[in-house]
Amino acid sequence: MKRLSAVVLICAAALTAGADDLEEALRLLSQQALSVNIVARITENGQETVWNMEVSRVTIAGRAVVLRLDGSNVVVVVQFTPYRENADELLLVAQGQTWVGGTAGEEVKYRTSFKSMPVTLGESVVFFPLGARVDGIALEDDEYAGFNIELEVQVVPYQTAAE
Amino acid sequence: MCPDEKELLSAYLDGEVPSPWKERLEARLQESPECAAELEQLAAVSAYLHAEPEPDYAASQRAVWKRLANSGLQHRPQPLWGRRVAIPLPLAAAVASLLLLLSAALVWHGGRATVSPADLPIAGGEIDLTIRMGDVSVDELLRIINESETIGEVTVQLPEGARFRFLGEPQLIRAAESRALEPVLVPHVEPYLESDAPLPD
C-alpha cells in the first residue's frame, strides 16, 4: 500500500508539474520532500538523559510523520505535520495522545493535545507529551524517579539531509 | 542515470506501475545497464524468497481448534429479556413519538437553562479525560489502541522499568527555550493535620 502510494505520489507530481520525463518528476518530488528528524529522550529530574533514540522520516508538506512510544505504563502517539509557509519557513503541528497507567487497579489517564509553532527549516523544537517541568516531584518517590519524555524535532529539506 | 527510488523498481517488478510511466521506465531500463542490474538483483531476491516451501500449519491449526472446542463454550438458554415480543405497530409508533417529544423538551429546557458560551470547550484546546478502566492492564490497553487504528508509522519501545506520570500540560517549545527550563524538585513533606501536636521544625 505504501509502495502504491509512493507510485501514485510520483505519478501525481509528474502530472501536476506537466513533466514529461520520469527523472524530472522525481527531481521535483525530491525538491518538495522534507526530512523530519526526531530524537526521543528520557530524562531524569529534567537534567540527565538516561536514554535516547533517533528516528528520521521523509515526508512532504501536509503529510504527518507518526511516532509511537510504548513503555511499561505509558503509550504516547504523536503526529508531526509540517506545512510550508514559504521557502524557508513552515508551520509545525504536533498532535499528541498520551495514556498513562498507574499501579495495578488504578485508573488509566488520557490526555490529548494539539500544538502548532512557526519554525524555520533546520530549527529544533521540543515536544513534551507528559509536560515540560518536573515540578513538585518528591525526591523520595522511587517509583517514578522524575522521568520525563522529550521529543526533539527538526525539519530540513530532504535534499539537504541526503547530502 | 538510474532513478534512486528503489521502491519504484520494486513496484515495477510487482506490476504496480501504471502506463505511461511503465513504458518510460522500461525504456530507461534498456538504456541503463545499472538499472537493469539493480532490477535483476531485486528479481533474484524475490525468486529466492518464493522458492522456499511454505511451512505446514496443519498440526498447529488442529491444536488450536481442539483448544477452542474444549474451552467450555456451550449454548446458553436464552434469557427472558432476550426473547422477542410482538408489539402492535400503532402502539409502537405512539410510544416512539412520546419519547421523541419528551427528549426534545428535555434538550430545549436544559439548553436554555445551563449552557453558556463560557462553558463550551475551546476548539483545538486540550482535553483531560480520566478513564477508569478497573483491572485493565497496559497490554490490554495496547490491544485496544491497536484495534482503533491509531498505530503510528514508527513504534519505539521504551526501556523496561521506567515508569512515568503526567507532570503538567503537554508543551511544544523551541529547543533553545527548553534548555532554560530548570527542574523544580521539592522534598517530600507529610501533610500537616490539625491536632494538638506541635508544629514540625
Task: Describe, in plain words, how this protein is organized in 3D.
- The complex is a heterodimer of chains A (163) and B (201).
- Chain A contains 3 helices and 9 strands, in the order ααβββββββββα.
- Chain A is of the alpha+beta class and 163 residues long.
- Chain A has 2 domains: 1-32; 34-162, no CATH class.
- The model of chain A is unreliable at 136-140 (pLDDT under 50).
- With 201 residues, chain B is mainly α.
- Chain B contains 7 helices and 4 strands; from the N terminus they run H-H-H-H-H-E-H-E-E-H-E.
- Chain B has helices at 6-13, 21-31, 33-51, 58-69, 89-114, 138-147, 175-178, and strands spanning 127-131, 154-157, 171-174, 185-186.
- Chain B starts with 5 loop residues before the first helix and ends in a 15-residue tail after the last strand.
- The model of chain B is unreliable at 113-124 and 184-201 (pLDDT under 50).
- At the A-B interface, helix 1, helix 2, strand 2, strand 3 and strand 4 of A face helix 1, helix 2, strand 1, helix 6 and strand 2 of B.
* Percentage of residues assigned to helices of chain A: 10-25%
Number of strands of chain B: 4
End-to-end separation of chain A: 28 Å
Distance between the termini of chain B: 80 Å
Give the largest chain-chain interface (CB within 8 Å).
A-B, 86 and 69 residues
Stretches of chain B where pLDDT falls below 50 for ≥5 residues? 113-124, 184-201
Instruction: Give the C-alpha Rg of chain A.
Output: 19 Å
Question: With helices defined by DSSP (H or I, 4 residues minimum), what is the helix count of chain B?
Answer: 7
> Strands of the biggest beta sheet of chain A: in what spatial order?
2-1-9-7
| Approximate shape of chain B | extended
Query: Which shape of chain A, going by the Cα principal axes?
Result: elongated
Proportion of β residues of chain B?
5-15%
Main pleated sheet of chain A? 4 strands, antiparallel
Described by strand count, sense and barrel closure, the largest sheet of chain B is: none
- The quaternary state of the protein chains shown equals heterodimer
Order of helices and strands of chain B: HHHHHEHEEHE
